[in-house]
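Help wanted!
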Amino acid sequence: MTTEAVPTPDDLAAALEALRARVPLVHSLTNVVSANFVTNVLLAAGAVNAHIDNVHEAAGFARIAGGVLVNLGTPDDGTAAAFTAAAGAAHESGTPWVLDPVGVGALPWRSGLAVDLLRYRPTGIRGNASEIIALAGLGGDTRGVDSGDTPEAAVPAAAALLAHADVVSASGAVDHLVGRAADGTVVGVRIRGGSDMLPRVTSTGCSLGALAAAYLAIAPTPLVGLVAAHAHVAVAAEIADETATGPGSFAVAYLDALYSVDATTLAERARIEPLDVLAVDRR
Amino acid sequence: MTTEAVPTPDDLAAALEALRARVPLVHSLTNVVSANFVTNVLLAAGAVNAHIDNVHEAAGFARIAGGVLVNLGTPDDGTAAAFTAAAGAAHESGTPWVLDPVGVGALPWRSGLAVDLLRYRPTGIRGNASEIIALAGLGGDTRGVDSGDTPEAAVPAAAALLAHADVVSASGAVDHLVGRAADGTVVGVRIRGGSDMLPRVTSTGCSLGALAAAYLAIAPTPLVGLVAAHAHVAVAAEIADETATGPGSFAVAYLDALYSVDATTLAERARIEPLDVLAVDRR
Amino acid sequence: MTTEAVPTPDDLAAALEALRARVPLVHSLTNVVSANFVTNVLLAAGAVNAHIDNVHEAAGFARIAGGVLVNLGTPDDGTAAAFTAAAGAAHESGTPWVLDPVGVGALPWRSGLAVDLLRYRPTGIRGNASEIIALAGLGGDTRGVDSGDTPEAAVPAAAALLAHADVVSASGAVDHLVGRAADGTVVGVRIRGGSDMLPRVTSTGCSLGALAAAYLAIAPTPLVGLVAAHAHVAVAAEIADETATGPGSFAVAYLDALYSVDATTLAERARIEPLDVLAVDRR
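Answered by r_m:
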């Protein structure tokens, strides 16, 4: 593990500036619960979104988008075919894409979909701890199945999923993330911040996955991109928490904060720490 | 009619405390207009939600959920099959479930779906007055078809639907609800409160149906559960109305109030009155 | 071009008063991103909405609705069949309907759908500049394909689409709109106002299309109806902009303003200007 490989505040500031300057186009295939909020989060943060989940258009658009989000929240036979088409096209054309394995583990049909999608090698995987652990287990990586459900407990599973993806994160009270440094060594990062209100507002996790797709479109490396997405969200949620009086006002303030956070604020307030993946893994 | 069987303020307080302590998992099959708001209402009030409306997973999840919501708002062939699967599995496994017959009466295809679903005996039915009247008429209960469209006018239809469900409510300016006491006699309840802004915000009715599924998961009886859901909503809407300047700010304040209302406030502010169902019925 | 045919402030005030008095029922077939916001915009402004996009019910409901919106945002095979059914029934029964050609031009499958739908002669077409230009090009109106992407640049394309529709608008920083006067001459209108925040909130365009369907249900002419919808939105967005601190608070204030704007405010604040369509066209 190389501490030097952990993204710095300057890396985060540069990523946010690149996001605002380049306004990446995300192609989202997300669930019906989150579709509106995901798009509003992207627009507030500085990207744009096209939600295209029909099989006729998904592959073609994944080739021209800046980044693709495949979120398994409310699949049916039609959108499942579009997921495969989009992921396959993203993989072939080099478009970065994020897999959000919503509900994997608890729900057998979509668990099969998720395993199938791993063959298109997502650039990033983002889930909650249970989903990351379940996906690692289903992928044949047996280290993933013996753990609890905090993000820290999901670190070995996340590390195992690096066989299938460049970066993997488990979000929760403190987000945990693993990726690889330029020399191929595994890098772990812990992102503090956020708010107790985040789990009280639906689609905050799904929209983090979408924002990850936006950052992967413009960041120098997948590691910087996924860490920057987590940091942007964590800082905005902290700011929103200062004024919110409940989940309704929090959601409004959160969108405002995603919009108003600038590179200086992000660099100053982000709390990124190196994480010793092997130490967690040995427990 | 036994006035003693009408839930008391203490019953409501206990139900809210149980909701907050047990955080029931709702399985929602709801429409694309309401999916986001339904989930936010559940999270704000103190439950959690999984929206699963594909036929591959709906039955299995209905068996393990705390309560199920089947809302007919935007059905298609795929989700209609999932409705049947979920309702059937809920019925078999004893999971309480709520039928929200959106648009029944005005729209023939879904009216047929609703009648078919009655065979799985919903624990609760919640609709607006016209939907309750139409559903009772379609169910062969002819008393339901000769009425107007206020909740009070829907009481005979609601009572007729007790042939198919444990509790039935018609919401509107003043919500009206019927169920059965422990001795089997019909109990009627009127719930005052709410806000003129409720019909100006979409999915407030749909999310009441979802909250009913959450309360049915933890309440001692279906009657207490459905009354508690209506009371929680009525009190939160009254509180939100005090600060709102339009439907946008009302929706935000409503989510905040669903979250901040505690058992004491609910018991103090809920306006529950006994309703003489037979008297209404004889008109 | 007859300047006299441009709707006056009094025309707009009368249209808003008719909307509030008659509360038209919109039948929306819109995308999963916008379904919630579209409905909230209609309720806030003074209409009601039923989102019905299954093929079993779409035609029947289009016959009884006040106005229909067909929005191509997230089509699949099922909803595409419903679009055709609804548009066909609206055309046959004389229900005014609006086509919102989301993504047309960039996405080939839905571009074909849009061209097919033109045969049912939409009352109004509303899109962004690129969509209007692309649709005109696909419709065989070659004047449409050589332009840029500002609303002004879309005016020749919009005028060409008058072969297929009564009124056509391209929205953007300054909305541009074309229709026909009573004597058949082409009328152009420019609507100023709005807010830089509008493109930072998803579905503001889609909900303008829905509001157009509501106004077409009650306005004396399609031209007055579509101009009134644009003016209502432009004034409400200006008002919301005065207090918003980001896209989250803007969306809330926008719904409040759509609700609170009255006929006097609309007439005073709307900035409607005649547009010389032929002059633009000759450039």
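OP: Thanks! One thing I noticed: Chain A touches chain B at residues 31-37, 73-78, 103, 106-110, 199-203, 245-249, 251-252 (CB under 8 Å).
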